[in-house]
């Protein structure tokens, strides 16, 4: 076996460990064990991805660092530290292809739940109250999907399929996009925010997107609009969001990710009317673990056979181009 593979895990090992062990000299490391086991490894499978352990355990000597790191996630912000990014000999791949459709379905579910006030219906049910009331329609409503990568595109396609008007927001403006129609750049973003009934965040967390939804962006949103975040918590200035929700300018928010996870119990977001909170589960499905390991095993076979890897991340941009 030519390669030494370290699998970083927390709690449960990934499936198909027997197959992995037949393909590579495999050791398993918790976050606490990683500093001892990572130096000298050829490959790192990060089954845990939202953790400082990889950065903190990265060898000072580049010759001791892995040549290939695979993230079992779509987002790779935990991996974008200088020692990994600046080393041209380290290839970073991710789990592109696993989370797109589940996340799109989750976003559609959130939009329907907000428009139809399902949380209010369930509260009335718990109190045995019969409270007929009208709800919003989503047909013809405008969704601005901020983030035009694979997850954003899957969201756009699904929202279009149910009759919503969809546009995108990204680093560069363009028209005639097959999924978004119009993609707004920085110069037209303000008008797009002012027109959107739902603003959906699906961007990766990079140096350019951190804090992109600040007080000015929130102020630009249409009164009564709703914010949905399935990207990363740090895309949003949470205090500014709390302030805009509290003054009633926004009708609500559905938040799956947060700057600090788990969301602290003392956060005011827990109790704010019109706010739905989920524990970073937008892309999780019952078959997620098997799908993730299939992506890795495909690439591991390619690595062993000397073929090009799939889902190679542009480490400077922070996503697969």
UniProtKB/TrEMBL annotation:
CDD domains: 2-Hacid_dh_1 (cd05300). Residues 108-282 form the D-isomer specific 2-hydroxyacid dehydrogenase NAD-binding domain. The lineage of its organism: Bacteria, Bacillati, Actinomycetota, Actinomycetes, Kitasatosporales. It comes from Streptomyces bullii. Signal peptide: none annotated. This is D-2-hydroxyacid dehydrogenase. SUPFAM superfamilies: Formate/glycerate dehydrogenase catalytic domain-like, NAD(P)-binding Rossmann-fold domains. InterPro entries: D-isomer_DH_CS (IPR029753), D-isomer_DH_NAD-bd (IPR006140), NAD(P)-bd_dom_sf (IPR036291). Gene3D superfamilies: NAD(P)-binding Rossmann-like Domain. Keywords: NAD, Oxidoreductase.
